[in-house]
Amino acid sequence: MKIIAVCGMGIGSSISLKMNAEKALEALGIKAEVEALDLRKAQNEGHSADIILTTDDLIPLLQELPGKLVEITYVWDLAEIREKLASALGQ
Amino acid sequence: MFELLDAALGEGSILLNQEASTVAECFTLAGNALEVSGRTTPEYTFEMIEVFNELGPYMVIAPNIALAHARPGSNVISTGLSLVTLNKPVEFGSKKFDPVNIVIGLAAVDHDAHIDLMAELSEFFMNVTNVNFLLQADEVGNVRALFR
After folding, report:
1. Which of A6, A18, A66, B6 could be stapled to B147 by a disulfide with Cβ–Cβ 3.0 to 4.6 Å?
2. Cα separations (Å) of A84 from A74, B76, B119?
3. pLDDT in tens, B124-145
4. Residue A54: what are its φ and ψ, rounded to 5°?
């Protein structure tokens, strides 16, 4: 299982997304690698990701990737990320 | 309590009750504060504005809070933050979190050395009491006291 967390530059919201996704996965008891990526890198190298976590503005720019796109409204909200990850993972 | 935040905000990086009416003016304030505190070159400010023009309001990361930043590169001298509070809120075009009255400038030397800093940043700003205190603060010393 590979999860990528994507934001424009790969240093802001993607870092928060990655941190909260790791906490959420731990709570859900799921082992997965989470990588924070900037948009360009995600577009070029994100094809192997099963799940792509990102914010609404960037969703249209990541449609080409085969993985499941999960839109996160508020990257600092652990509860939202846990809920949406659980749903994306079919739990 | 928030030691990493305190350390990341260098001398001159906190500007309270500032006037701005556009995104570019907000980013210029945050960028100048990064530059004055020795984190970035002046070009970094222009990079931040370019990123906003290219990718839009996604940098409004939380209700009323923008995280202004560009990418790691030669215009970043060291990892750090700046913090600007605005007298009047500014519309950034964010459907979910407008208007903005706190602008945080972020400079990072790479993609992962500031992970713990981001954790502290979100912890601090998720607390409404901290945000309200910040918006009413007139003196940098009082803000510093909140971190210590």
Report:
1. B6
2. 12, 35, 20
3. 999 999 999 999 999 999 999 9
4. -160, 180
Q: ipTM exceeding 0.85? A: yes
Closest CA to A32 of A12, A45, A18: A18
- B140: helix, strand or coil: helix
What's the pLDDT at B111?
A: 87
Q: What is the pLDDT of residue B114?
A: 92
Task: Indicate which residue of B69, B94, B100, B114 is catalytic.
Answer: B69
Active site residue A64: no
Give me the torsion for CA of A12, A13, A14, A16, rounded to 10°.
100
Among the listed residues A7, A21, A75, A81, the single catalytic one is A7
Nearest CB to B119; choose among A19, A38, A56: A19
Integer Cα distance of A15 and A13 in angstroms? 5
Does A57 contact chain B (CB < 8 Å)?
A: yes
Nearest chain B CA: its distance from A53 CA (Å): 14
User: B95 vs chain A: nearest CA distance in angstroms?
Assistant: 10
Can you read off the two tokens belonging to residue A28? 């859900």
pLDDT of residue B91: 98
